[in-house]
Amino acid sequence: METYKDKIDIKRLPEHIAIIMDGNGRWAKEQGKIRIFGHQNGVGAVRAASEACAELGVKYLTLYAFSTENWNRSQIEVDALMRLLSKTMSEELKTLNDNDIRLNAIGDLQRLPKYNYDALMKTIEATKNNKRMTLTLCLSYSGRWEITNAVKQIAEKVMSGEIAIEQIDEDCVSKFLNTNNMPDPELLIRTSGEERLSNFLLWQLAYSEFYFTDKFWPDFGKEDLYQAIADYQNRERRFGKTSEQLSDKK
Ligand code: FPP
């Protein structure tokens, strides 16, 4: 049986895929279960997406795991999510190393509970030499928070004379973002039928292709990821140019 994997042109893979993992709560509700049951089942989808990307040769996978706004959820849900994240990081350490995947995290990490922060740092340290793929978890993250932070840092450098105002260009701003060492995502995926950015990677997604699916995150498997990549490869990325200009270049 032909699968979406067969439709993927391995030579034109996106180097960086970002995912808004949405719909855990609704997935659980559909089954008459509490929301955290959905998050627990979302872990399997995280594993599947990470494996599929690493196997194909995608270099960066970035997951929106906990937004700045998520702190406003009930204390019970926040605690459960934090515990689930720490538990998963410890349990998956071996799989990350076996698959040569480096764990990375971006966001206001100081806001995380200490036990969670420590588990995160331990896993990041233990996987730092892995080369096949970088898996970035966005934790206590929001795009506006990140850009505001960058503006503050640049302002400090201008005040201390390290940067002249004329030197502030897009490259300079990019360097002060949490993603300074990775390329912008070519493809953004959001599950659960919602079609918005929800404060995710606002700067970095400027030219990305967006792919939306109605599937809830716990149901999003490898084949769904292949389908998203195949769909992406059927699009023409023009970066503001016309089709003719693009084909002239070829
Ligand atoms: C969105 O669903 C999901 C989250 C806020 C948390 C994502 C967390 C996981 C998948 C757990 C494990 C993660 C890692 C990286 C190990 P939602 O709760 O907003 O769902 P809803 O919109 O249906 O309410």
Question: Secondary-structure blueprint of this entry?
Answer:
Blueprint: H1 4-7, E1 16-20, H2 24-30, H3 35-56, E2 60-67, H4 75-91, H5 93-98, E3 101-106, H6 114-126, E4 133-141, H7 143-159, H8 170-175, E5 187-190, E6 209-212, H9 222-233, H10 243-249
Parallel strand pairs: 1-2, 1-5, 2-4, 3-4, 5-6
Helix pairs in contact: 2-3, 3-4, 4-6
Bound molecules: farnesyl diphosphate.
Residues 21-26, 35, 39, 42-43, 46, 63, 65, 70, 84-85, 88, 137, 192, 217 line the site of farnesyl diphosphate.
If you had to describe this structure to a student in words, what would you say it looks like?
This protein has a six-stranded parallel sheet with strand order 3-4-2-1-5-6, with helices on both faces. The model has no long low-confidence stretch (mean pLDDT 96). It has helices at residues 4-7, 24-30, 35-56, 75-91, 93-98, 114-126, 143-159, 170-175, 222-233, 243-249, and strands at residues 16-20, 60-67, 101-106, 133-141, 187-190, 209-212. Helix 6 (114-126) links the parallel strand 3 and strand 4. It is built from ten helices and six strands, in the order H-E-H-H-E-H-H-E-H-E-H-H-E-E-H-H. The chain is α/β, with parallel strands linked by helices and 250 residues long. The chain is globular. Bound molecules: farnesyl diphosphate. Farnesyl diphosphate is lined by residues 21-26, 35, 39, 42-43, 46, 63, 65, 70, 84-85, 88, 137, 192, 217.
Order of strands, main sheet, comes to 3-4-2-1-5-6
**What summary fits the major beta sheet?**
6 strands, parallel
* Terminus-to-terminus distance: 35 Å
Structural class: alpha/beta
Attached small molecules: farnesyl diphosphate
Low-confidence stretches: none
Strand % is 5-15%
If you average the pLDDT, what whole number results? 96
Helical coverage, percent range: 40-55%
